[in-house]
Amino acid sequence: MRNETYLHVDSVLGVLRTGDIPIKVTAVDGNVYLIKHDIKGHAKRNLVCEYLAHKIFDYFGVSIPNAEILTFDPNMFAEELSSVAGRFVEHKVFASKWLNALDIKDDLYVNHKSADNLDNPTELAKILVMDLWLKNSDRQPLNLNLIVSKQRVYAIDHSAIFDQNSFRSLVNKDIKEYFTEPGEQGDLLINSHYFKHYFKKNPEEFHSAGVELCDKINSTDLTFINNTLDSLPEGWHITKDEKSAILDYLDHRKNRLYEVFTGHLDFSRK
Fold first, then answer.
1. Burial zone of 37 (CB within 10 Å; 0-12 exposed, 13-18 middle, 19+ buried)
2. Domains delineated in the chain
């Protein structure tokens, strides 16, 4: 039985003109959130991906902002949403808790002269493991999808996990077995100047943190993912076959995580 009781959006603070036009809001709990919403006429796949990725990152203790599912009625905020009027319908949305943070730009690290100093640099190794497992094709040098708040790095934006394939297609053997191999030119965090900046300083710590996470994932029963998929809002339209495809995909890929992760690190050391 789904829990259909969600916090309501209380006010709209602004519309961000980036990516899929996230909206900064407050909810009735008094917290500020950045909501990812379904644009009218589009599938709710992105909302499912965002929420599922958040639950997986959170379960394994990988740095990601807290998140909720909120009820959003755009008709209550016609003036605030005038620039995007008519594009939304009332529905449940993915909402990431707002952090006062810097959006990291990779070109600042070309010459490794940045003055910032992360308190949790090895989190980058764990984020790489997650991106490999979930096949996140959107975290890349030109679009790191990382923020830093109070000197701690957080992963954001996961609508493109599963390499943007449909859920049903994940049963395809070629799709679920495909990893970006070490040395292959691909859209991976490890190819960024930002990752290399910290990896160079902490190579053994990066290796240990990533391997520990690979082992943890590989030995974990994925029942919690099934429970997460079963708890999605009714309106997000996930079928039994799609749930099964997602679970099989993740279970199949976790066995190669150690091999692929360590291969990428070894190649990057050269």
1. buried
2. 7-97 (3.30.200), 102-269 (1.10.1070)
